[in-house]
Amino acid sequence: MIIVMVTFQLPGAWDMEEAKKVFETTAPKYFGREGLIRKHYFLAEEGDRAGGIYLWDSKAYAEACYTPEWKIMVTDKYGAPPNIQYLASPVTVDNVAEQIQIS
Fold first, then answer.
1. How far apart are CA 29 and CA 9, in angstroms?
2. Residue 75: CATH number of its domain
3. Bridge pairing between strands 83-88 and 91-94
4. CA distance 62 to 2
5. What are phi and psi of 59, to 5 degrees?
6. Looking at residue 1, what is its pLDDT?
7. What is the span of the domain harbouring residue 22?
8. d(CA 35, CA 65)
């Protein structure tokens, strides 16, 4: 598994209600996405940064998502280009499933 953190600087501070409204418009695009296990949207406490934390089956699935067209869509939607970080996830603790997963 791989974790990807996508972050972008917002042109102005958002509050949580504004963030929810915007995130709800893009969330359906990720539902059923091949290789995507989970996506968490986030808003920094200061409201000046936002993004997503993704858990993917593999880096190949993640890279298939973050196309040039996707980057343009994100830039247009949020007013800033995304910063994409790929992070290895060798061990995951899942308290819901009550298991530890080793990659």
1. 22
2. 3.30.70.100
3. unpaired
4. 8
5. -65, -35
6. 87
7. 2-102
8. 10
Which is more confident, 92 or 16? 16
The pLDDT score that the predictor gives to residue 87 is 97
Nearest to 26 by CA among 91, 94, 69, 73: 73
Amino acid in the structure at residue 11? P
With contact defined as beta carbons under 8 Å apart, do 58 and 24 qualify?
Answer: no
Q: Which tokens belong to 100?
A: 């530890």
Side-chain-side CA neighbours of residue 77 (13 Å): 19
Helices (H), 1-103: 16-26, 59-65, 68-78
Contact 55, 5 (CB under 8 A): no
pTM of the shown model: 0.90
As for how many domains the chain has, the answer is: 1
Q: CA-to-CA distance for 101 and 103, rounded, in angstroms?
A: 6
pLDDT tens profile 28-77:
999 999 999 999 999 999 999 999 999 999 999 999 999 999 999 999 98
Q: Residue 101 is encoded by which pair of tokens?
A: 């997963």
